Amino acid sequence: MxxxxxxxxxxxxxxxxxxxxxxxxxWMAGVxxxxxxAEHSWRASLIASVIxxxxxxxxxxxxxxxxxxxxxxxxxxxxxxLGKKYAPAGDPQAVTAxxxxxxxxxxxxxxxxxxxxxxxxxxxxxxxxxxxxxxxxMLQGIEYKAQGYESAQRWIDNSRARLSTETGQRLADELxxxxxxxxxxxxxxxxx
Length: 192
Fold this sequence. Notes:
Elements: H1 6-16, H2 25-28, H3 37-55, H4 59-68, H5 73-76, H6 81-86, H7 92-100, H8 105-120, H9 124-146, H10 153-161, H11 166-177, H12 182-187
């Protein structure tokens, strides 16, 4: 392979910073040590594959889109909803173009196309990935609320209201009907 992979290697180090980049909106709910962007993106990717499969879309493509949906935050940080009122977040496609500069063309163009597809919401997989992003936020809010962060209800309600797929809405209803540890009780054969 003749392509220089130095830009790819730099990006892989850069992507690692998302493991330490906190989702800042949760601070407003009183959460002292909120989840990282990487943690959010991981579960959003799982959720995207589930929603896509149940919606008849390509689950691998939806998960792929969800993996990349917040990678620009290595450069912009996680700008929460209130922060965007004063300092708009960077254009995801422009940030991605900078991040992929110098990468082999086959890779750089694939990443840029993924981000453009997610942002345009012009495919069923992109819609499923966006729903997964919102559903993951709602799910995290439920978990934080169960830990005593009552203010998380705002994130639960707002995320639930932004879901567009039938599967996303049905999953939201089911998540709201269960508790964060119901899975464990079920696995242990305990009655709820």
